[in-house]
Amino acid sequence: NAGVTQTPKFQVLKTGQSMTLQCAQDMNHEYMSWYRQDPGMGLRLIHYSVGAGITDQGEVPNGYNVSRSTTEDFPLRLLSAAPSQTSVYFCASTGTANTEAFFGQGTRLTVV
Amino acid sequence: TQLLEQSPQFLSIQEGENLTVYCNSSSVFSSLQWYRQEPGEGPVLLVTVVTGGEVKKLKRLTFQFGDARKDSSLHITAAQPGDTGLYLCAGGRDNYKLTFGKGTLLTVNP
């Protein structure tokens, strides 16, 4: 019973490097989202998608790109990592509005 | 941006004590969700309330949604060390988006 799977769990990047955080869900949910969690800031929405081929910006989208080619996968791309992007990133999926958001275990990213 | 103000930010209590966490907003939400997060894990849903004035109980936890659907509270009776964790409230809208509060870090000491 996988639910939402995120990889990698930990990552260290140098400033300017690029990488992709992977997220996959096996619940056939239409809505998927990416959040970052920083101390004292709660969860802030980066990007979200309401279905394959449809993405939109959240509260803090700068420096991040997303795509949704399939219902299952929703990768998050950092094009040129900056120290300000050091954070814990969570992917979530939701089946119906106002119901449970299922979260992955998170990716702890450090940019040096 | 609709804000959810959550208080207190930190709470350290002794086992057996009662506590209340508050989540307040100037905006109306379709639903209010409470999540609990443990270190190194993603948040896990505790409850969803959708009707103004609604009260839900989950063992020693009592959740209430304000009459105007702008605020909510979480009350824990006789807290136990296993209740330790980060509690997050989230306001839901019909467009699937959730707005999270900053969280309450609860420590229950034996």
Describe this structure in words.
With 112 residues, chain A is mainly beta. Chain A has strands at residues 4-7, 10-13, 19-25, 31-38, 42-51, 54-57, 64-66, 76-78, 87-94, 101-103, 107-111. Chain A is built from no helices and 11 strands. Chain B is built from no helices and 11 strands. In chain B, strands 2, 4, 5, 9, 10 and 11 form a 6-stranded mixed β-sheet that branches. Chain B has a 5-stranded antiparallel β-sheet with strand order 1-3-8-7-6, with no helix packed on it. Chain B is globular.
What is this entry, summarized?
The complex is a heterodimer of chains A (112) and B (110). Chain A is mainly β. Chain A contains no helices and eleven strands.
Total DSSP helices of chain A: 0
How many beta-strand elements of chain A? Answer: 11
Helix-and-strand structural type of chain A: mainly beta
> How much of the polypeptide of chain B forms β-strand, as a percent range?
over 45%
Compute the gyration radius of chain B: what is it?
13 Å
Main beta sheet strand tally, sense and closure of chain B: 6 strands, mixed
Give the helix level of chain B as a range of percent. under 10%
Uncertain residue ranges of chain B: none
Quick one: overall form of chain B?
globular
Specify which chain pair forms the largest interface. Answer: A-B, 26 and 27 residues
Order of helices and strands of chain B: EEEEEEEEEEE
- Element-level helix/strand string of chain A: EEEEEEEEEEE
Distance between the termini of chain A: 36 Å
